[in-house]
Amino acid sequence: MSMLTSLVRAYERLPDAPPYGYSTEKIGFCVVLNRDGSVAEVIDLRDNDKKRSPRMMRVPQAVKRTVGIVPNFLWDKSAYVLGVTAREGKRTAEEHAKFRSQHLDWLSGSDDPGLLALARFLEQWTPEIFIQQCWDEAAKDQNLAFRLAEERDYIHNRAAARALWTKVGAAGAPDPQLCLATGSSAPVARLHPSLKGVWGAQSSGASLVSFNLDAFTSYGHEQGDNAPVSEVAAFAYTTALNRFLEKDSGHRIQIGDTSTVFWADATDAGVAAQSEAFFGAFFDPVATEKNSADTIAAQLERIRRGERLAEVAPALEQGVRFCVLGLAPNAARLSVRFWWENDFGTLTAHYQRYLDDMRLDPPPREGWPPLWRYLTELAAQGKRENVPPLIAGDWMRSILTGAPYPLTLLSTVLMRIRADGEINARRAAMLKSVLIRNFAKEVPVALDPANTNKGYILGRLFAVYEEVQRAALGGNVNATIKDKFYGAASASPQKVFRTLDAGAQNHFSKLRKQSPGRAVNLEKLLGAITELMEPGRDPIPAALGAAEQALFGIGYYHQRSDFFRKHDDTPITEADQ
């Protein structure tokens, strides 16, 4: 099933989806009209919260504006409806003139009281009246709708208005063509409606499907004829996507710069909702908190322990087709970072494999961190907006499909460790996961004293040298050996470890006086690790490759964490673990 076809099916299952030709928009004010077209009052529809959010209202579908001046039907922003704006508004007069002339043309011949009142309002309105009648300045640049003074419903909901909108929409419809999304013959959409809510995209909306340059066309076709999707299908898939992209929709999570939406295709609505709740909980801790009071939290824990989905939630094993779409901004368009569709059972198996790849002891303090938390480890200063582009989408695609991880994940983690010297559980887990999946290496989950890999041994050895320094000097060190030498030691160990060994002997001489027992234990550990190296003239290699550098970091993390364990082997308590 194609992405657009799946979205059309998702629209058909939406319980409160607007019908074809209508969309849900933000309406800030309502202009109440008398029958003679005069203004009875202006009602502020915004919420009374601090943000003063406009009311979401179903109205005739918004037009798609590029550079042209095109009015919406029976509603629009103040520049079009009233000819006023809070900004400079170089085209405001033209926009209002177009709204006025177009509506007077549409409404001519109508005998409906509501439509007649709107026509009379437009005939007598001038932008100067806004100041003369002391309208609320907050109405500027808000979307406005209309209703009659003696009625409660809006003019655009009147039967005559709906019939007129159907007539307006059918005017000039193109000849039917075969729709690629539905397979039926219907008029093709020349321009597809905009999508809103994608992080980083234009607030006015961006296009998923568009053709606006000759380079994008084929065989001389124009606009939507290059990829014929019917107007009904275009409306359906954009309506569904806009609904999924809404905040707190329960169908979206943010993975780096990729706005990720997901939905289930199942005959049983309850089963579909359950699978969507599971997916949200897989990658979003907020979703987990929302479901903590019901059985999903307990079932999620069982899945994370590795139990098969057929045992945890048998209804989800088969018959649930799950879809995940990743969208990222690209100027006025949207880029599809990934599109995945498969059985929910397959998705769960791939998720469990991802967890197994990331399993580490000691684990991160927060248990199973969300994916975005891992991504911040790749960003300068730990800021989500600094996450390298593409890597989030590529990694998410690998998790969904079970494919090898992007190698940029490995190189970026190593780069960040060299830059800030931080080797924590999350970074070590990412290094481990890439080594297992991409290099088929056996990487220990916890400290492995018998592991003979050169990178792992040297990482442990480096951690011991650091501990010797810490034990001898305490906290009175401006810069530890990790701060000074970690990058060079992990990449070119032969140049560094002689210096580290010489420094350790000086520290040992001081430690023997302060804590003889501690000095003996560290000397024994140092000797045990050194014995694991291959005998030879110089067992320390001149350089380590990327995979060996990753094992160096994991060995360092394991050995350093072990120093902070109590004798009863309780977990470490240091703040950065």
Brief description of this entry?
The chain has 577 residues and is of the alpha+beta class.
N-to-C terminal Cα separation, in Å?
Answer: 44 Å
- Judging from the principal axes of the Cα atoms, what is the shape? elongated
Would you tell me the structural class of the helices and strands?
alpha+beta
Spans where pLDDT lies below 50 across 5 or more residues: 567-577
Average predicted confidence as pLDDT: 90
Strand content: 5-15%
Strand order of the largest sheet: 3-2-6-5
Radius of gyration: 32 Å
Give the total of beta strands.
Answer: 12
Walk me through the topology.
Blueprint: H1 3-13, E1 22-27, E2 29-33, E3 39-44, E4 55-60, E5 76-77, H2 78-81, H3 92-107, H4 113-124, H5 128-132, E6 143-148, H6 159-170, E7 176-178, E8 185-187, H7 231-245, E9 252-255, E10 258-265, H8 269-283, H9 285-290, H10 295-304, H11 309-312, H12 314-317, E11 321-330, E12 333-343, H13 344-358, H14 371-376, H15 391-401, H16 407-420, H17 425-439, H18 454-473, H19 481-491, H20 493-514, H21 516-531, H22 546-563
Parallel strand pairs: 2-6
Antiparallel strand pairs: 1-4, 2-3, 5-6, 7-8, 9-10, 10-11, 11-12
